Amino acid sequence: MSDDLFALDIGTRSVIGLVCRPDNENKIKVRSFEIREHEMRSMYDGQIHDIDSVAQVVQDVKTTLEKKTDNKFGSAAIAAAGRSLETEKYYLETSLNPEQRIDPEQVYALELEAVKAAENQLQERMSSRNIHDPNYYCVAHSVINYTLNSHDIINPIGQKGDTLGVEIIATFLPQVVVDGLEGVMNQVGLSISNLTLEPIAAISLAIPEKIRMLNLALVDIGAGTSDIAITDKGSVVAYQMVPLAGDEITDKLCKELLVEFDTGEKIKFFLSQNKKEKLSYYDILGNKQEITKQKLKTIIEPQLERLSKNIGEAILEVNNGAPSAVFCVGGGSELPGLAEKLASKLDLPQEKVAVKGYEKWEKVKNLRKGLKGPQGVTPLGIALSSVQNKNFGFIDVTVNNELVRLFEHGDIKVANALVSVRFPMKDLIPKPGEGLTVWLNGEKIYYPGQEGKTAQIKVNGEPASLETELKTGDEITVEPAQKGPKASVKISQILKQTTNQYFYFNDDQINFPQAIYIDKERIDQKKGLDLYINQDCQIETRVINTVDELMKRLEIDNTKYCLYDSQNNRFLDDTENIKPQQEIIVKQKSLNDSKSDEIVESETTKGENKDKGPEQIQINVNGEELQLPEKDSHIFMDIFNVVDFKTSMKKGDLVMKINGEPAEFTDVIKNGDELMIYWSEEGPKKLPRI
């Protein structure tokens, strides 16, 4: 079997066949080549319109080269025309959870959703032109810009905001183009050994790998279109097509000089190749004419200006600015003055816009004269791409049991498959539940909903992500993300944001209790703390700090007890306000209702039995059995006589319960009661004995 490689450049005007032999350094040695022009217009802008006619030309090239090189070819490397690519821009914005930082998965999913939307936009645009191709392959996409809260941002990952937007530019290859190429190849008995895109092929030769990290533009100026490819960071990141090229110049010459198209092509070739200053030709009336090269340049000046302007604008649009340099290939790139005009449109020095093709290629040996120049870059690049395995084949995978065929350009990932089956990318991003807005003392407070469940992606049953690479036969399953539960907030959580002023009561630090009103209706603080708040409810709180109200709130019998200001050594009247951090103790009134100087350790509570004498009681505190000393009656705060609990060392909210119900310091406790006391941030724990 021969080691020779057969490559075909099936172009709009001609077919170029190339036979070369690769070596172990990924270089090619040219053995032979053949060029045939189409006898009729069987291709338009790189797309095959008459498979039989194109196949006849390809067969002629194939047969000739088989005889020249003593080969029998069963396959060939080919390229899809860059001019058949379609490019779309799209801006997409999504709402965010303002409390959650943006992660890479969110950004990538939004990009892919924008790509899908760009494809839909392309379908609509094509339909408006009565072009109906249901299938397009996305061959590249790049981000033009991100926005956060409608303002430009370079990188949104790790940020917070209300909205995230992305503008992308995506390039699509119609399936009909690939189908047409496959049809020609089948008819001439050839299989496709390697499929690439013409711009990629040109880049393989014209832009060495060692400089592809730079932001460069390659422009292939052909007959009907000018194809643009952009490189950056080692990859081709964008494509664009301008529907103007060499034919624009030929048409102008034909009109001005009254010549047929073939003569116009020869005059254009004279402009770019011949060193003579004058040219003789015959017009359509049979008159012999003579014209100078300077006169020809004047005739085509408006068309050169228009062509350079359109190419420059397309590069600026697709690259979001001027590249570092521009490489021009294709026959049209040799038009005199075009490179200089293009440099001016891009505001680049003239030396940074170069025509490629006449230099000695590092990767090509035995370069023939007919392949030298810009017109030889693409066929040589097709052969070189095949040697370097720059293949654009297809792989078949399934997404939730749906078969999908993917255009293989580089690494194919789960994300590419999801775009192809039009999976709604927004279903990959977990959305928080409905938030809750309440008004606390006239101030608006928003509580976000709980986070949703992340989408579950698996490949062949194993956990995967959007970045997981695929191969033929892989089975992808996707369970959409789930919305999170709505915000659920208790009154006790709301009150954390109110005053935390406190006073000292019998040496214990106690927060001032509050009167709570919901939608102007007062609620019971003990039972109401566990109530859930409704949307847009109005909550008002008022600090309870008068002696009378505090005694009622602490359930101290004001007929038997009074409050004493130990700092100022005086009894407090019922109407006085207790000040923050004031030190208060409880004193018992004397039998004649006069104030007493005897300090009472605890309150004689409701349900007191005067006939009952002192008694010991057995209780459980935080899961540990304790015994309280003899006393006529016991209240919650009596446990501090036997256990050490620091009420001044706050670690969250103070939680106090008797038999599972909320309690206060002065609540009565009985034999066998189960008490709990702890800080909310710590939880219950055993308390050291005193």
From TrEMBL:
Residues 595-614 are annotated as: Disordered. One of its GO terms (molecular function) is RNA binding. It comes from the Bacteria. Transmembrane segments: none annotated. Keywords: Cell cycle, Cell division, RNA-binding. Residues 5-206 form the SHS2 domain. The keyword Cell cycle applies. Pfam families: FtsA. One of its GO terms (biological process) is cell division. InterPro entries: ATPase_NBD, FtsA/MreB, SHS2_FtsA. This is Cell division protein FtsA. It comes from Natranaerobius thermophilus (strain ATCC BAA-1301 / DSM 18059 / JW/NM-WN-LF).
